[in-house]
Amino acid sequence: MECTVSWTGNAGTRSGMGFIAETGSGHILAMDGAPDAGRPKNGGQNLAPRPMEAVLAGTGGCTAYDVVLILKRGRHDVRGCSVRLTSERAPADPKVFTTIHMQFTVTGRGIPAAAVERAIAMSHEKYCSASIMLGKTAQISTGFEIVEA
After folding, report:
1. Which of 88, 72, 78 has its CA nearest to residue 109?
2. What is the mean pLDDT of the chain?
3. Which domains does the chain have, with CATH numbers?
4. Residue 102 neighbours by CB under 8 Å, 6+ apart
5. Cα torsion 58, 60, 63, 66: sign
6. What is the pTM for the complete model shown?
7. Does residue 81 sit in helix, strand or coil?
8. Does the structure show a pLDDT above 70 at 98?
9. 113: CB partners within 8 A, 6+ apart
10. 77 vs 131: CA distance, rounded Å
11. Which of 39, 40, 63, 112 could form a disulfide with 128 if both were Cys (CB 3.0 to 4.6 A apart)?
12. What share of the chain has pLDDT > 70, as a percent?
């Protein structure tokens, strides 16, 4: 896996904290810093997610992918899956995630709660590289609800 991240600072002044990532699969992801980060002209322009927001979003995508795949492999009638992630970070550098809560909403027909609980556990214990990695610094908790469709 590879990725190239390039600074998109304004030509001439080289101000701003925007970055473009080009992934090995050929996709583009924009990232930007907070406008109030650092001294004047060192902050971002709030044009894209912060890099750490992208880490959190990627973790949500990784675990939601696993949950859907595990439920489908179990022949459950999954029609939707979302996960809302809330987190806290350490107050001092390097401001790692210290807590992350993942609240899943699984939509489908006749999906047993035990199957959803198992899929989430399997993702976090065995398959989701991102949440397993973040679990080294953050206490990760989960919850879920099932919506009958």
Report:
1. 78
2. 93
3. 1-49 (no CATH), 51-148 (3.30.300.20)
4. 60, 63, 83, 84, 85, 120, 131, 140, 141, 142, 143
5. negative
6. 0.90
7. strand
8. yes
9. 144, 146
10. 25
11. 63
12. 93
pLDDT confidence of residue 50:
94
Per-residue exposure over 108-125, b if at least 16 CB sit within 10 Å of its own CB, e if not: beebeeebbeebbeebbe
Q: Which residue shows structure tokens 């899956």?
A: 81
Burial of 31 (0-12, 13-18, 19+ CB in 10 A): buried
pLDDT score at 9: 75
- What are the angstrom distances between the C-alpha of 144 and each of 71, 97, 105? 14, 21, 6
Helix, strand, coil in percent for the chain, rounding step 5: 30, 35, 35
Q: Is the per-residue pLDDT at 79 higher than 80?
A: yes
Q: Which long-range contacts (CB under 8 A, 24 or more apart) does 58-62 make?
A: 58/130, 59/85, 59/100, 59/128, 59/130, 59/131, 59/134, 60/85, 60/102, 62/123, 62/128, 62/129, 62/130, 62/131
φ, ψ of residue 83 in degrees (nearest 5)? -140, 125
Q: For residue 18, give the 3-state DSSP assignment.
A: coil
Please state, in angstroms and rounded to a whole number, the distance separating the CA atoms of residues 64 and 126.
Answer: 14
